[in-house]
Structures are given as C-alpha cells and as structure tokens.
Amino acid sequence: MANMIKLVSTIGFSVIFAVILNEVTAKPQHPPLKIVNGTTAKDGEFPYMVQLLSDSDAFFCGGSIIGDRWILTAGHCVEASEGGKVVYGTNLLAEEKHLDTAIKIKKSYLHPLFAYNYTYGGDIPYFDVGILELEHAIPFDAKAQPVQLANSETNSSAPMPFHQNGTLSGWGVNETFGAAAEFLQKINLQLLNDTECARKIDDYVSVDIFNSTHNLCSDDYYNGECFGDSGSPFVVNGLQYGVVSWSFKPCGITPGTYSRLTTPAYREFIRNVTGI
User: Which residues contact 141 (CB under 8 A, 6 or more apart)?
Assistant: First the structure.
C-alpha cells in the first residue's frame, strides 16, 4: 500500500504552498501528532517571538525580533505579508483579538534569489528568508527583546553546534491540519549535522533533496514544526541559527528544515537590509 505525502512550506491556514509528491512506500503509523509534542511557553520566556497577522487579522506565520523595527521570517511568509501586522510581547495567539501590541508592516524585503527549486521530491524554497520593516519601533521591555543572530560560517571561528540542543518556538498547529495553538509552544530539539539530515530526509523519498547550503535540520521525528510555524526561529545557546522553512507532511514524519542563517548569502542579505 502507498500513501501520498505533501511537501509544504509551513505557512498557515489561508495560504498554503504545497505540491503532491509521487507515491512513496507507506511508513509505519506514528502516534497522534500533538509545534508537535511541544509544551506551553511561559509568558515572556521567548521575548524575541512575534506572530504575523494578515490584513484581516488571520495568523499565518511566526518571526523573530532582530531590531526594534526589524523582523526576520521566512521568504514565503513575506509573500503573504502585504497589508499585515506584527504582534509582539505576548504568548497568546492574537488572531482576531486586536491586541495593542500590534504594529503595521511598513515594507517587506524578500531575498533577491528566493525561488522554488523543483525536484523529484517537490518544490523546495531556496533563499527562504525575508525581512519585515515596521512602521514604528517596538518598545523593548522584559517581554520584547531582539534575538542575536549566529555569524556567517565564513566569518566565525566557532564550529556549528551540531548535536547540541536548541529550542523551536511557535504558534503552529499541534497536528496536521489541526488548529493553531492558543498559547506559544516550545520544544527542545537536537541540531543534526548535514550528513544525518540528508540521510533522514532523502531516504524518505529516495531522492537527494536536502541541500546543506540552504538548510539545517533538527532531530524532530514525531516532534517539531507543523503548519503555521513557518518563519519561527530555531535558537541554540542564545543564537538564532535557523528559520522554519519546509517539511514533509504529515507533521513529524521526517525532520523539519530551517533556512541556514550562517550561509554567507543569507547573513549578508540580513546585514545589507538592516545593518544587523
């Protein structure tokens, strides 16, 4: 028996980029996907977390504060951000709640090389990073602070923190096609090295699809990112190394992937736009 698997960028509910993969051998049934299998974050625990709302106040992506007027997110989230707003300083899902910590998006910046790369496995977004400029500055306090970004791999003497635990946080659904989380979720995941990522992801579809220039992955089998977590940060030792980009569905069937912020072309884009 074979099943159909969707490869989707994990943008939320009104806009979903998806392609249907060719049939692959059915995998063993996994437990109910309950971020999946995460726990509720404490209020103010991740002061860099923001949520992106459309012009109709519908939640569609996560993001991180990197400056008082600057939000880092996924490139495919930027595509859906026109007329939207950013909500900061709260663990509560702000959808249709009209919270006073919302700031309109002034301008969006998509990586100039952003594109979907067609492979046998599906359409994979490359250079999947974007920047949102806000209409006015976020007033920093205990619940709203910027995250520090990891340096480019070519400009850093520190090795990549492979096999160390990092934290993924987001308001994404807790099971495939479920409802967005009412409160911010978190989960600790180990950052895998490139060989492990390629093996775990590529073996699933029997095609080379993981690209270590563009992506990182964490050991989130049965756990981790799902719809709505796109743009959310993956942080190791206080530094953001990744932005949730794409994953196979159902959620947790393989490790999810992040845009690799230490790749020079990604880090330089952020610096050129924001000065950060």
Answer: 89
pLDDT in tens, 216-253: 999 866 666 776 789 999 999 999 999 999 888 777 77
Rounded CA gap, 184 and 223, in Å?
15
d(CA 52, CA 218): 24
Cα dist from 142 to 45, 82, 83, 165, 171, whole Å: 9, 29, 28, 24, 20
Q: What is the pLDDT of residues 20-69, one digit of tens each?
A: 222 222 232 333 223 566 788 999 999 999 999 998 888 999 999 999 99
Q: How far is CA 66 from the centre of its chain?
A: 15
SS3 153: helix
165: left (phi over 0), alpha (psi -120 to 50) or beta: beta
Q: How many residues does the chain have?
A: 276
| Residue 64: strand pairing partners | 49, 72
Query: Would you state the structure tokens that stand for residue 190, as one six-digit string?
Result: 């180990």
DSSP 206-266: TS----TTTEEEB--TTSB--TT-TT-EEEETTEEEEEEEEEEESTTSS--EEEETTSHHH
Which pTM does this prediction carry?
A: 0.85
Pairwise CA distance, residues 19 & 120, whole Å: 11
Token duo for residue 154: 């070519």
